[in-house]
Amino acid sequence: MILLQRTAKNFGNIDGSSIEPAALSVVAMDQFHTIRLETDFGTVPLVEVFAVSTDLSPHEQFVIIEGDCQSVDGIGTNMKSGSLCVLGSVGDKTGASMSGGDLVISGNARDQLGAGMSDGMIYVAGDCRHSLASPLPGRKLGMRGGDILIAGNVGNRACERIRRGTVFVAGDAGDYCVPQMIAGSVVVMGEIGEEWGGGMRRGSIILGRDYSSTSSASLSEAREFELSFLPLLWRHIVQMQHRAFAILNLAIAMSDTATQRAARRAPAPLRIPSTRWVQRQIADLNCNGRGEILVLRRTSSRMIETA
Fold it and tell me: Most buried in the list 22, 56, 117, 277, measured by CB within 10 Å?
């Protein structure tokens, strides 16, 4: 286990793209000073930005970052394995090009969380700003696989050109949500903004309520269906949350004193729907799309408890 505690020193914006479990797990304790990070004030050693400590535990690829990291961009970039838990908030492009492992954030995330990711799991206990799971600059595709769970709200242009993967947003989503969707599953349980779902080719956008009047996509007539795949999706999301909470609780236990642990707990678990009944529409008819908009029905009768 590696613990990185954010120092009080100000370096402006910091490039944290080299901070990921596989890369750090092979570094000896006396070699961390050789790792350098790009900042607004020039290149500085990692040990000036973070106080580093290690523990000879069985968790070889387990990195804990403690403290506010909103100015640290790119944490977990190209992450392929292991677990990385941030006890605080993070900057832009966290989890960019991620292809494996588990990334858990106890605070908020800024822009382009999970941009270009192809596998792995990301959990955010707070809110996420704009361009969640979006394409990286110069790339055509957004998220191409993996799972993202946001316990709070997300900003504009979430899941742009998503091709595969599952995204669950427990709160609200901003404008232009899921534009030019190619495939995958995106769930928004709260409100959704204007001009969402335009240019949809395939995939499923699942909503907690009917917002068809604000969609920029051309939709077919709505019909009620019972879909057998939905319980499997809900079970998958429940398992993802269980895994995230296990990592978060372990990080809290390994990083804090007993007094601090009493004051810091994992967030309350979400209540995941269990319904298989939906109002279904095909979209986007303007581009011969074969995607589907599913509005959940009968969600109040029973919910999956995840505590």
Answer: 117
